[in-house]
Amino acid sequence: MNRKLILSLLIVAVCGNVFAQEVKFRVGANYGTFSKEIGPEEVPHPYIPVISPDKYGVDFSSDSKMGFETELMLLWTPNIETGIEFRYSNFSGFSDTTESYYNFLLSDDWPDNERYNNVPLIYESSAMSFLFNFRYYLAPGGNINPFFKAFGGISLVGTELNYKDRSVWEDGEAGVLFSAGTQNSDNPRESAFQYGAGLGINFKFSNRVSLYLDGSASAINSGIVNGIPNYDYTAADQTLKPVDGKSMIYTFSVGLVFDTGANLGLSKNTGGSSGKGSKTKGTGNTSPYRPFYRKR
Fold this sequence. Notes:
- The protein has helices at residues 2-15, 47-51, 103-106, 167-170, 292-295, and strands spanning 22-38, 61-75, 80-94, 121-137, 144-163, 178-180, 190-204, 209-220, 230-234, 239-243, 246-263.
- It is mainly beta.
- Mean pLDDT is 80; it is low at 9-20 and 267-296.
């Protein structure tokens, strides 16, 4: 991956004096889905296999929810484009399992209220992402232009975990089970590195407007995208300690790209007839009172 990045920067550096930068702007909607947590599994508390040997963890069914995104794009060469993107993604999921157990349930951070085993859980999460995009276009001269993209940046993740049946906690018998970065929490959003890759396609409507579609997979270095923080059981001191997690998500984006018609002109030759030492014929003082310029 490092070699590809270095090669891309070399291409931009070499070709930057041949092709001027073309400025484009993209707006669109996205649909995000939490897939799974990747990396080492949590070390379960020894009580959990005794209490519920077949029901460790929560098997959530993920919902795709709409978010939005906007991007400033710079075309360096016909094939290479970079962009700075702001993406707001929503994730949600629910569980119909009524007797799930997991480490967070037995940790000191579990809220002081009764556990309702007959009430399924639901989470609602969001991520505010600031991403740098790199795209390589395969058919830059056509109206249909597929591309490969890679991206990376920082995401601010917020989440809320509670019971699916809101009447349980709206009556004051139970509250929000976990939250961060929401109005029900004093905890700020969790900052995490995000990186990924994807494929997409541009459908050109005119010289200025095109339809944009892409699908991507990415990893966010956060374990709360699914609403449940991660804990490992430590046998030495018989406690549960919070640990970092990593979440895999899938995103589908659709939107419109507008070519602003602007050109930064960083590679244009600014010399011309007005430059110093210009040899353009007919320049100079042509006042009728000083005709000797033409007679010589």
